[in-house]
Amino acid sequence: MADINEQTVLGALGNVKDPISGNDIVSAGMVRGLQMKDGHVAFAIEVDPEQGPKMEPLRKEAEKTVHALDGVLTATVVLTAEKAQQPAEPAPQPTSPGSTGAAPQPTGNALPGVASIIAVASGKGGVGKSTTAVNLALGLAAAGKKVGLMDADIYGPSMPRMMGITGQPVSNDGKNLEAMENYGIKVMSIGFLVEDDTPMIWRGPMVQSALEQMMRDVNWGELDVLVVDMPPGTGDAQLTMAQRVPLTGAIIVSTPQDIALLDARKGLNMFRKVDVPVFGIIENMSYFTCPHCGERSEIFAHGGAREEADRLGCDFLGEIPLDIEIRVTSDGGSPIVVSQPDGEHAKSYKSIALEVAGKIETTLAQQEADAPKIVIQ
Ligand code: ADP
């Protein structure tokens, strides 16, 4: 098998033309972040955000061109709109390598057919955010809602595994991807689109574009609620996402440890800064019930999240214990809300889901009441 190198890839891409300017995408400087490892090639094509949806054929052509090269096993190409949107073109290049590029739009456009979008966030990784998102989504579905689940954690996508879904999404219309589905929930994750061993190369602004594109280019169908499993942390990428995606509300997952609580506070402030209502805090790994004797032990300072929620003036949505069953079921692809639907833990998730459903309704009603009314005289 031939060794693939940057020159060969760029050489081939030199034949791919930008349909708008007519220039090839390499000399037009549109190829960004080219990475290759063991025959896996990934890069982004930078496009004008306005033209985004129309550039899909270009993305496909670039992907096909690189994939056809000798020595290439997979080619992953995403469109990115990294530059700030300018009132008049052409938009200038970001001035410094550290520049975050895009000036975020105040609010993104709604997704057609999707009545509400909620973000599940955490101040840091490993607190059980994805596990909570998945069980919450299943709890909402159990309450009769039409639910979608979007895995926005593009560095460590876990939804394919947690939802027990393998394979790749198809496109019926050649434009949008059909969401994958299991347990009555529509799911999309970058994990479906890249090989397991493909390096995740995204930098801040590219993360944003890739996520937005992934979310908008999916046929979600009619949904009551789309649950977004946010990337962990409260950095620029999360902030921009919170700003650009039309969120109805946000939920913060935290463990009781003090340090995590400080992080939870950052998450809360982030959403407040961009005027997204925070529905409340869920305390995960809140206490431990011994699987043998049933005794309950408080491993960390249990109850910290409830106190913190009080202090911060936001609601406490509930607590979920640390239980190996929660881990085994979600890591094994049949989360506890579907695998043990009548158990204690499923009940806890379902009751949190009902509270969240109520908050979604109230927020939507409020937004409608606040919307400017047009009176025609
Ligand atoms: P995050 O999304 O915050 O990084 P995950 O949801 O991936 O965290 O959880 C990290 C690990 O902890 C996973 O293996 C998951 O199964 C486990 N886990 C999450 N919540 C619980 C819980 N309440 N009890 C036991 N294990 C849990």
Structure description:
The chain has 377 residues and is α/β, with parallel strands linked by helices. It has two domains: 75 residues, Fe-S cluster assembly (FSCA) (GMP Synthetase, Chain A, domain 3, 2-Layer Sandwich), CATH 3.30.300.130; 254 residues, Rossmann fold, CATH 3.40.50.300. Helices cover 33% and strands 20% of the residues. It contains eleven helices and 14 strands. Strands 4, 5, 7, 8, 10, 11, 12, 13 and 14 form a nine-stranded mixed β-sheet that branches. Strands 1-2-3 form a three-stranded mixed β-sheet, sandwiched between helices. A two-stranded parallel sheet has the order 6-9. α3 crosses α11. About 7% of the residues have low confidence. The site of adenosine-5'-diphosphate has 19 residues, from α3, β12, β14 and α9.
Q: Number of domains in the coordinates?
A: 2
The shape is globular
Determine the CATH topology of the largest domain: Rossmann fold
**Strand-and-helix sequence, N→C?**
HEEHEEHEHEEEHEEHEHEEHEHHH
Mean pLDDT: 81
Distance between the termini: 73 Å
Radius of gyration: 22 Å
**Number of β-strand runs:** 14
Report the total helices: 11
CATH level 4 superfamily of the largest domain: P-loop containing nucleotide triphosphate hydrolases
Architecture per CATH nomenclature, i.e. the level-2 architecture of the largest domain: 3-Layer(aba) Sandwich
In the CATH hierarchy, what is the class of the largest domain?
Alpha Beta
Bound molecules: adenosine-5'-diphosphate
Percent of residues in beta strands?
15-25%
